[in-house]
Design a protein that fits this description.
This protein is of the alpha+beta class. Helix content is 27%, strand content 28%. It has one domain. Strand 1 and strand 2 form a beta hairpin.
């Protein structure tokens, strides 16, 4: 990725940046990192929006894995598993056209001590 990038969105679990020099996006979410073109970013957003979380949670209700929603990759022996809230959080992170607004309590990334 280039040295001159612009943060587009950010939350407690990741960020999306754009490099005008490389004309590429870098998405970092939890322990995942993606370098994406415009086309790939649009495809990822469309795919995430099309996921039926209810279907996958029911389909894998007896799975040994806590996370039930699969995101396939081009590598046949690698699949990303997410929880419903992670799908929504990732979609929120990828929404570069949203208007800035209030942050939620969960977006505050430091300990809070109530007196």
């Amino acid at each position: 990725m280039c040295k001159h990038f612009k943060y587009l969105t950010k939350n407690k679990n990741g960020f999306l940046v754009y490099c005008a020099t490389a004309k590429a996006y870098q998405l970092s979410y939890k322990n995942l990192n993606f370098n994406l073109t415009d086309y790939e970013l649009d495809g990822l957003v469309k795919y995430l929006k099309s996921i039926d979380c209810d279907y996958w949670e029911k389909e894998y209700q007896n799975s040994i894995y806590e996370k039930k929603i699969p995101i396939p990759t081009l590598q046949s022996n690698f699949m990303i598993l997410l929880e419903r809230n992670e799908v929504y959080e990732l979609l929120n992170l990828l929404d570069i056209n949203k208007k800035t607004g209030f942050i939620s309590f969960s977006d505050i990334n430091y300990p809070i001590h109530l007196n």
